[in-house]
Amino acid sequence: MFIPVIGLEVHAELLTDSKIFCGCSAEFGGDHNTRCCPSCAGFPGTLPMLNKRAVEYAIRAGFTMNCDINKLTYWDRKNYFYPDLPTAYQVSQLYLPLCVNGKVDINVDGEGSKQIRIHQIHLEEDAGKLVHDDFNNVSLADYNRGGIPLIEIVTEPDFSNADEVKEFVEKISLLLQYAGVCECRMEQGQLRVDVNISLMRQGDEKLGTRAEIKNLNSIKSITRAIEYEIKRQTEILQNGEKVVQETRRFNENRGTTSSLRSKVDAHDYRYFPDPDIPAVTITQAELDSIREQLPELPDTRLERYIDEYKLTPVNAKILIADRAISDFFDEAVKSYNKPKSISDFIIVELLRRINLGELDANAIPFSAQEFARLVQAADEQKIAKNNAKTTLRYMIETGDSLDKIAEENGFWIKEDREKLVSTIDKILAENENVVAEYLAGEVKVFGYLMGQCTKALRGVCTPQSIKKELEDKLGKLK
Ligand code: ADP
Ligand code: MG
Ligand code: ZN
After folding, report:
1. What does pTM read for this prediction?
2. Given its phi and psi angles, is residue 393 left (phi above 0), alpha (psi -120 to 50 degrees) or beta?
3. Shortest CA distance to 445 belongs to which of 430, 455, 435?
């Protein structure tokens, strides 16, 4: 039997306003070649200027993954020719990367916790993009993406299956989102994963020969590519043949991988320190200040929700899965200290509407305080449960306040005693036979009477006060 050995190289685009070595916009998209200048388009004679924010963001990312930060760092040129790279070299880091020796804990269902070692995180520039026009049979270069800052997270070969890789990619996406350095939208290419994979026999000392599958941009593709590759390499080894060290591409439609090129070694890139970019020294004070700016990270939040707020692990996990939602939850609990009620209403009602596309978690059109008031009103039966849900819907649709909506729609339960007493009297009078049955000991007809009263008094009184009044009245008839 063969054991899979997997290591990852993950590229994440940093959320800086401008590119890493010039002032061009680093925003996603834009008309072709409208976000580039002589510098990022590789014109001779231009000089790069390092974006300080990109360095800070990379350090933040390093902290979330427990890395050591090198206080002296510099950039190297990785030379290769490809039309998406106008300088014919990528500015990257080989010899002295910014972050080293990290670790990230993952949890896999049925496997428990496992630590993945991070070899390094370095800061580099993205390349442009080739747009293939099959109709005219040409490829065109768009350099908007060229020079957007990227971090490359390189793990040790610590994974043994696709589930572990999935957990890890989800975990680091969350960390980068919390750190505010990358939104990790895989479908937009903000996070791209290269999977290195080899097989070894039980008891082998040396790792097997690996294939590298480039640029996977969804969790599903990662999983499928790993599973296919394990099958492919197993067959090769079982036939007594050798796995070739190479770079492969995953074909989404077929679910297979195919050879792209034979593996290039580091020395083939003729790396050398970039003479145009000065080395950077970072002081301890700067590192401390970057660390201080980090928010509470997802693991700590998860623990707090479970230990302090007594939420179930499942619900706690749902809340932390989106930092905007988790922040909203924390804010709401600050103004109404019933974490379970708030969490239930967020998970069952708010998230459902977000998933339906009715609103965006990052742009909730009402405050967490207003939301908390709604949950409290429902808890205290000042508003019926169903009406509370409707109120939320109106708050999303109109942006109106809870008060306005509840007032206009008559959702406030006013506890009108007079109406309570007269309505119950009337219902008892109309149901003489049922009352007689009840008095003769047929207690289960109480439910029927209660149902009639609730229907007539919905929104006028709470179910509790209706029940109490009905019991009192029937008691007196005994
Ligand atoms: P390169 O930079 O040439 O691609 P590295 O040695 O830096 O090679 O490794 C890159 C990635 O490949 C790392 O994530 C590492 O964990 C992984 N890796 C290295 N050797 C193996 C192997 N034999 N099997 C699986 N993954 C491996
Ligand atoms: Mg590589
Ligand atoms: Zn530019």
Report:
1. 0.86
2. alpha
3. 435
**Ligand 1 centre from 7 Cα, in Å?**
6
Residue 291 lies in a domain: no
Kindly state whether residue 289 falls inside one of the protein's structural domains.
no
Nearest ligand by distance to the CA of 157? 1
Name the residue at shortest CA distance from atom 13 of ligand 1: 7
Q: How far does the centroid of ligand 3 lie from the alpha carbon of residue 19, in Å?
A: 7
* Ligand 1 pocket: which of 9, 80, 95, 216 to mutate (most atoms within 8 A of CB): 9
Residue 8: the pLDDT is 98
The secondary element (H helix, E strand) that includes residue 427 is helix 417-430
- Domain assignment present for 86: yes
The residue from 284, 310, 332 where one domain ends is: 284
Tell me, yes or no, whether 352 lies in a domain.
yes
Residue-level pLDDT at 434:
94
> What's the 52 CA to ligand 3 centre distance in angstroms?
15
| Residue 125 backbone dihedrals phi, psi, to 5 degrees | -100, 150
Question: Distance between CA atoms of 420 and 467, rounded to whole angstroms?
Answer: 11
Q: Which of 261, 284, 307 is the last residue of a domain?
A: 284
In a shared domain, residues 397 and 308:
yes
305 and 201 housed in the same domain:
no
Strand pairing category for 2-13 and 149-155: antiparallel
For residues 237 and 353, state if they share a domain.
no
* Structural domain harbouring 269: 2-284
What's the whole-number mean pLDDT along residues 108-126?
A: 94
Which residues lie with the beta carbon below 6 Å from any ligand 1 atom?
A: 5-9, 154-157, 196-198, 207-208, 210, 266
- Structural domains of the chain, count: 3
Lowest mean pLDDT among 51-55, 317-321, 352-356, 406-410: 406-410
In this predicted structure, what is the pLDDT of residue 235? 96
140 plus 188 within the same structural domain? yes
**Cα 228 to ligand 1 centre (Å):** 19
Strand-pair partners of 138: 133
DSSP string for 300-344: HHHHHHHHTS---HHHHHHHHTSHHHHHHHHHHHHHS--HHHHHH
Whether residue 172 is found in the same domain as residue 313: no
CA angle 119, 125, 130 (to 5 degrees): 120
Which ligand is nearest the CA of 206, by number? 1
